[in-house]
Amino acid sequence: MNRPYKPGTPCWIDLMVPDQQAAIDFYSDLLGWRGEVGPPETGGYAVCTLKGKPVAGIMKAMNPDGTVPDPMPPVAWTTYLATDDIDATLRSVSDSGGTVMMGAMDVMDLGRMSVIADPTGAVVGLWQAGSFDGAGIVNEHGALVWNELTTADIPAASAFYSSVLPLTTARSEAPGAEGYVEFKVDGREVGGIMDPERLQPGVPPHWRPYFNVDDVDEVQAAAVRAGAAVLDPAFDTPAGRMAVLADPQGGVFAVIASPVPE
Question: Residue 101: which CATH number?
Answer without folding.
Answer: 3.10.180.10
